[in-house]
Amino acid sequence: MVLLDTSVWIDFLKKVDPYYKIVMGLLMEQRVVTNSLIFGELLQGVRNNREKEMLLEFWSNLPKTKEEHLALKAGIYSNEQKLYSKGVGLIDCMILVTALENGYRLATKDEKLARVIPYKSKFSLAV
Prior knowledge:
Blueprint: E1 2-4, H1 6-13, H2 19-28, E2 32-33, H3 36-44, H4 49-61, H5 70-81, H6 90-102, E3 105-107, H7 111-116
Parallel strand pairs: 1-2, 1-3
Helix pairs in contact: 1-2, 5-6
C-alpha cells in the first residue's frame, strides 16, 4: 500500500503529470491508503463545495490508516531522529510514522520529508 502525502494529492487533483497518471494507476489498483491528517490538510485548502465534496468522496472510499496515539509516537520518533532540526514538522512526522508502523510506502514531493524517509519506505514518483 502507498500513503500519498498531501503534496502528491494536490498535483493529482490538479491533474499535473506525471503525478496524475501515477496516482490514478495506484487508485485503480487499489493500492492507496490515507489518513485524516492528509485529508485535513487538503480540506483546509478547498475553494468551493464541489472540491470539498470530491475530497470527501475520495475520503469515504479509501482505506484508512490507524491513528491511535499517533502524535505521541511521532513526537518520540521526531525527537530520536532529530527531525525538527531537519525541517520536518510534526504533521509530516505523523504521516511518516504512519507509513513506517504499517509497512506502507510513502510518496511525497516535500523535499525535507523525502530526505528522512528510510529507503525501504520510500515510494518513487519517477516515471
